[in-house]
Amino acid sequence: MARSQRSTVARRDLARHQRFEDLSPEVGQLDEAAVDAAMAEDPDDVLGLLADMARATDPVLRELARRLAGRLVVDLARCGPTRQRGVGRIETTRFDPDAGDLDLDASTEAIVEARAAGAAVDPDRLHVRRWVRPRTAVCLLVDRSGSMQGRPLATNALAAAAAALRCQDQDYSVIAFAGDAVAVKSQDEAAPVERVVDRVLSLRGKGTTDLAGALRLAAHQLARTDAGRKVVVLLSDCRATEPGDVLAAASVLEELVVVAPAGDDEDARRLAREAGAQIATVSGPSEIPAAFATLLG
Question: Rounded to two decimals, what is the model's pTM?
Fold first, then answer.
């Protein structure tokens, strides 16, 4: 996993935020009670500030903010529905009294032979039919080509937490892209959600946007899974500045959904329309759980 070097923010710059002195009254301090109270008023504002504080030059404040931001992000992601959707199907499997209904067609021979022999039916020769839904795998693409601080950074971190919580078997990946793309978490890596969120909070912005390259890497990540449903979640304004055929890259994906910043979604809507993708917009990190629920079911 490639990790970006953390750029730091001086306390005097953080102090420009109107809530900063309330949350951090002294050097090396973070008042969690004040954070909780502020979260009740404006969670997006607080999460954005904590994301910036997680890059503070003060190492004690940086560590406190990083841990608290990670916990709040994961808690907020849990507020949204995490049930996976998908087209269900009936399958026949080995007998389990709690798995489903007895499949008479598949079990008739064993039943008839047991009755003829006056013996008990061998349960290993019985079958049941059950309703199953395909496992969902997700590849989350987070755009770091612009400002990776404040609310945008917190939004990306919360999206990573939401992806993790929707894929309880950790069948998900997180790719951060700009002019290049790096795996924050690869599809086949096992990592606690808190660690993945921390990695996202450690990212810093870069210049150009290679959207086609990011989509190609997403396809490569999802090729590693045998899940029945494979979804790429693109968190971006979708304004590509590097050459590349974005539509061609999108066309090979089984399913693409787009989450764009509210008020800056023209290019994202165009891509969604041309690629046949679903789209939702968010104005801050707290809207991510609802967006995921809408787009992923």
Answer: 0.79
